Amino acid sequence: MVDQHRQAAVVEFEHVTKRYDAPAARDKGKPTPGAVNDLSLTVPAGKICILVGPSGCGKTTSLKMVNRLIEPTAGKILIDGVDASTRELTDLRRSIGYVIQQVGLFPHQTIGDNVATVPRLLGWPKARLNERAEELLALVGLDPAKYRDRFPSQLSGGERQRVGVARALAADPPIMLMDEPFGAVDPIVRDRLQNEFLRLQETIAKTILFVTHDIDEAIKMGDLVAVFQTGGILAQFGRPLDILAAPASEFVARFVGQDRGLKRLSLLRISDVPLRPAVTARPGDNAADARRRALDDPLRYLLLIDHGNKPIGWIAHGDIPAEGGLSESLANPSSPILNKRTTLKDALSMMLDADVQTGIVVDRTGAVQGLLSIDTIADKMREGEHAATFDQVPPPDPEIGEPDPADDPGATPDAVEVRA
Amino acid sequence: MPPGTKVFDFGWVVGHLGSVGERIVQHLQLSILPLILGIVISLVLAVWAVRQHRVYAPITAITGLLYTIPSLAAFALLLPITGLTLITALIPLTTYTLLILFRSFAAGFTSVPAEILEAAEGMGYTRRQRLFRVELPLAVPLMIAGIRLASVTTIGLATVASVLGGDTFGGLGQLITEGIQTFFPTKYLLGAALSVLLAFSADFLFVRFERLITPWAHARVGAG
Amino acid sequence: MDNITAFFSDPAQWSGSSGIPARLFEHLVIAGSSVLLAILIAVPIGLYVGHTNRGSGVAINLANIGRAVPSYAMMVIPLPLTLTLAPILGYDAGFGLTFLPIFLAMTFLAIPPLLVSTYAGLRSVDRDLIEAGRGMGLSERQILTRIEIPLASSILVGGLRTATLQVIATATIGAILGGGGLGRFIFDGLNQGEAGYPSIYGGAILVAGLAIGVDLILAWVQRRLTPRALRPPRRGERSSPASVAGGPDLASPAPGAAA
After folding, report:
1. Is A65 helix (H, G, I), strand (E, B) or coil?
2. Tell me: the pLDDT tens digits for A47-66?
3. Cβ burial, residue C209 (10 Å; 0-12/13-18/19+)
4. C258/B56 touch (CB, cutoff 8 Å), yes or no
5. For the segment B139-159, what is each residue's pLDDT rounded down to a tens digit?
6. Domains by residue range for chain C, with CATH
7. C235–B110: do the CB atoms touch at under 8 Å?
């Protein structure tokens, strides 16, 4: 019996298969849409696992087998080691949060009552129900006083989606199943909901199985991504970065898209790449001396910094006077200021916008740490492309609790290794 | 009409308030009983038809057939079997409600969007909880529309029951029949007016009732 | 029971002014003429309201009112008027009793279903088709006759079915006033006590048979006019152009014989 109070559970698929009867005899043996074929994977506790693939690939079917809206033809699904099929059906469902694309809020109940649905089914006392509903509405960014007594018909699509998430979280389930939850809203709202959900997950840390057909959403949201292909076959399972860097088959390569190099860039940060040291000088420094040192820089530019090591601007070698002191007025502040957490994609964007080849990387205090050149980014992109082979490359085992390299500023930038 | 008969004799009405009142009560009996019976039967049939799609067509066909038979003929067909009793009136009055109620109940159930039912199932409602807490409440608007129509129709059909010679149960129709037979306009006009009034009142009350129990369907966007 | 077969097998029943054919004819004439008049009144209004969508609220409300009125009541209300009016207009007094009030009542009762079904039928036509028609240069009248009416025809016939059954039923009761029609068998029988049972029963069978027969014919016509098979609504689908009149839909089996 899964402990209701445990924050997140481990979900395992063991050789799960779902077969549907083919409509016509001549189709026997061919994979039917929605079927699932010998699916085995493990979702560690507290991680978001995305199930992604084209229509009819079995991703939604796989999801629905966890709360047994669909029963497997063969194989087992284990939740914290317990076979889901041995659990009492409604008990099981009440311990799993379920969010669907159209939300499915009950139109005849207030928002507050909707959110409190599962706790009410579980028999929580009335006072606790209200309290919990308000807590959750606040959690998803809706003012409880304003929304609790409204009806779903009075809310916008984005607001309803949030209520749907709140409702799924109400009984604090260890697992959440989400079936294209952000699909029915416009891209701007979707982006916001995705960001907020990721932030929410940092607090609640639940095990989440998330179905989508959008590879960009998969890469953005997932700790782990399971790519399905038509026929219910798992094509690849691993971290988004690994799938982008080393697609396991031509199908996966095609599915993630031609621009997977660029996609990777959105997953890599400046902390993942080497920086170039800057040749620096301060205002008032001896000009002749500075002039000589500027020749050390490959592009022959000097970076003027202040006493706090904050960047002021560039001075080209040719612009440095032969004698006297360096003055601030010579400096040209054209480069974007970046920090180690900036994604390579954003950095690239900013540099292209400013029409420069170099970005200045600073730390939390604003002090210069180094320079990022556009070539470094291009190299990183190319690294990924060369790694693409179409042999079956076994995906790396996802480790539970893997440290995030970006957290350690002193770490060598190449912490994220790419299989060659 | 004998010359000199007043079209409407108020004096008579005032003098016979008691018996007129009795007729009204009879009429209500005649209308409410079939309605309640019809609701119960139709509810069962509708739930069945929604679970087993195949029975929808046959049920519609049978109730439709019963509905097609003009009420007088229906009453007359039962007369030799059940005699000049209340039952002779009640049976056809009940079967007439079935078509309307069955169809609106079934329509009510099928109007519940599938995703709401899926969400309910996925969250852990039992089948029965789903029926009573989700499907029925959401089916209510269409169901009440049907009950409204059925009640108005039944009140109207009940007026015909009187021609069977129902002095004991004839209701307002009896006023009409007696009025015609005795060439007494006051009676038949009163009977007619009262039955019309009764029908309209029922209609109005049901509109109010529906509004009362479905606050969500009338909630204004941006209110509250 | 054998008396009933006797009723039908007696040759006298089949001839003369009070025989079965005569009564049937009377019934059809009374019913048919009022339906015709109702069509002439209701359909043009319905077409206008349906095509332009103006005045729909008023039309619907009137239809609701008409639907709520008991037919028996409707029949007797004009009596004082028709009785006094008939001789003035030069008609036999009996006409004012046996025909006119019933005729007026039936016409009045037939109008709401025809009006509502015409309106609902026109509203059910896909707006895109109408827009396409306008775009191609069809005049408003052409849109009505070439697009809207053909596509709405099955719903229109549904309304006709309802109206016709309503009228057949009302005509049956109307016989109480002494006029013609199949209802006479029933009333004449009622007046004869025990001996009248065969007549009552026979009349009832005839009336039921007429109603069912007409309904079947119109149902067949309606089915022929329907573009795709009428299936019971699937979950989540709207039933049909229903809630227009605030009630279950008018397109399927006649919600008819309210009399």
Report:
1. helix
2. 999 999 998 889 999 999 99
3. middle
4. no
5. 988 999 999 999 999 999 998
6. 2-227 (1.10.3720.10)
7. yes
